[in-house]
Amino acid sequence: MLLEAVYHRPRLNWSYAYDENTIHLRLRAKKGDLTEVYAWAGDKYAWDTTKELIPMTLFTSDAMFDYWECESVPPHRRLKYGFLLQKDHERIWMTENDFQTERPNNPNRLFEFPYINRGDVFAPPAWVKDAVFYQIFPERFANGDPNLSPEKVEPWGGTPTPTNFFGGDLQGVIDHLDYLEGLGITGIYFTPVFSGTTNHKYDTEDYMKVDPHFGDTETLKKLVEACHARGIRVLLDAVFNHSGRTFAPFVDVLEKGEASRYKDWFHIREFPLQVTDGYPTYDAFAFEPLMPKLNTENPEVKQYLLEIAEYWIRETGIDGWRLDVANEVDHEFWRDFRKVVKRANPQAYILGEIWHESAPWLEGDKFDAVMNYPFTDAVLDFFVNDSLDAEGFANSIGKQLSRYPLQASEVAFNLLDSHDTPRLLTLAGGDKKKLKLAALFQFTFMGTPCIYYGDEIGMDGEGDPGCRKCMEWDPAKQDLELFAYYRTLIDIRNSHPALRTGTFTFLEAQRQGSKLAYERRLGEDVVVVLVNTEETAQTFRVNVEEVHWENVLTGDSLRTERGNLAVKLPAYGSAVLKAIF
C-alpha cells in the first residue's frame, strides 16, 4: 500500500456539502493500489451511537491516481471522520494526522466537517443542468434592422477581418428565435452587447448603453422577453477586467494625466500614457492599448461595476453573466459580485472565463461554473486531433472530474469552440464524422453543452477573424443533415435525466485504443454510449447488468448475452443505448 500517494483534506473538492443535508467525502490513492476504502464517520458529540463504516466507490481515475467517494447524510449536519484503507488483507486507518494499523480509540484526531451551514452550501442554479446553450457573436448573427448598421457596413457574408462590420444586431436575433427554438436551444450566451468601437465590443465605451449598432435598452428588453417566452435563458458578457480606450474615465486620464480624478481607476505605471515598443505604460489586457485594465480594488471602480451588474439584471431580466478574463480580477471583487448578483436574481448563472484548472473560483463564494477548456482540450485531442488514445482521454476526463465538487461539474460550461478559437469543423479538417463524435460526447457528458453559432449547419473558419464569419441563412448553403443530428442529440439529452445529472463511468478506454464506452446512470434511467474513433469497423463487448437495450439512434433492439453486450460499429460509428426494464 503506497501511503505516500494517499491524500485528503477537509475542504474544496475533498470534503464538501452537496446540499443542505449531504456531505461528500473523497480520497485519492495510487491507481490500482487499494481494493476497498471506507469512511469511518459519525457525530462528534454522539460518536459511540452514530459511528459507521461507509463504503466508498471508485468514482474516477487519472493516469496516476484513483479517486474514491462516498456520501453521508449526518442527522445533525456535522461529521467526524477518518478512513479505512484496504489492499487485499492489509488494513490501514487514516486520521487527520497519520496512518495507523489499529483502529483509533476515539474521534478526537479524525478529520472534521464542523457543520453544514446553509449559507456555505455551494448551490448553482438547478436549471443550468438541463440547459443547452448557443453562443452568439451579435455582429455576425443576423442583420434585423439595416437602419442601425455602421456607415461602412459590408454586404452580409463577406470575408471577416479584425475591423470590418456586417451589421448584425439584436433585432436579427429576435427574428431568428424560431430557428433556435426549433433546434432545441434553451440558453443563449451573447458576447458583449454594450457600446464599443470594435466589432467584438470587448473594448467597452459605456457600460450603461447598448451599442447603437445593435439597438437600445428597449430592444434588449424585447429580446429577453421573447427568449423567456420560448423558455430560453439569456447570459450577457461582463467585461470587468478592462474597459475600452474610449471609456470616459480613461479618456479623462488621457487628457489630464496625473491630475485626473480617475487615475486610480486603472493600473498606471508611468505618465504620460503611451505605448513604447509595443508595451503601454499602463496595464492592459494582453498589452492591447485599446483595453486598459480596470483597478477593481479601487472602491469607486468596484461600486460602479457592481451597480452595472445589478442594473442589467433588474432592468432587462437577464439570467446571468459570463465574466471575461475572470482569473485576472481580484477574488474579493468576485465575492462581492456574487452577493450583488444573487440578491438581484438568486437563480442567476455566474460563469467565469478561465482556461485552466479553476478550483479557487469554485468554492461557492464566487462563480457557479467556468468555461470548461480542459474538457475542450481533451475532447479535441481524442476525437479530432488523434493525439490521445482512449486511456489518455479517460484519464484527462477523470482528472477534470476529480478537481471540482460534483455540483460544479454538473453545471460546467462545456464548449468545443468559440469566438476565440478555430471552428470545430476546421479543427476536424472538414471531417464531419469526427465533428459528430465530439458533439456526441459533449451532449452525453456531465455539464451544460454550448454550440457556437453555425456549427450546427457546418460553418467553418480558422481562428479570429475566420471563426467570426456571418451566420449562413441560405438553406441551400446549410448542412441540414448536420442540423438534424444536433437536433437529435438535444432530444436524446432532454429525454434522459441520466445524461444531465446521472453518474458517469467509463466502461472501456484502453491504452492505444480507439474504442470508448461509458455509462450514465440515474436510478432506472441507464444509458451506455459507444464510440468508435477508428477508420475501420470494430466490435464492442461491454459488461453490463441490464439485459434488454435499445439503440436510440437507430431504434434497434439488443440483448445482453452472458453478461456482455456485443455491438459492432462501423468506422467512426456510435451507439447510444438505453436499458429497457
From TrEMBL:
Looking up CDD domains in the UniProt record yields:
AmyAc_CMD, E_set_CDase_PDE_N
Keyword tags: Glycosidase, Hydrolase
Q: What biological processes does GO assign it?
A: carbohydrate metabolic process
Q: Where is the Glycosyl hydrolase family 13 catalytic domain?
A: 135-493
> Which GO molecular function, any one, fits this protein according to its record?
hydrolase activity, hydrolyzing O-glycosyl compounds
Q: Name one Pfam family in it.
A: Alpha-amylase
Which PANTHER family does the UniProt record give? ALPHA-AMYLASE FAMILY MEMBER, MALTODEXTRIN GLUCOSIDASE
Q: What protein name is recorded for this chain?
A: Alpha-glycosidase
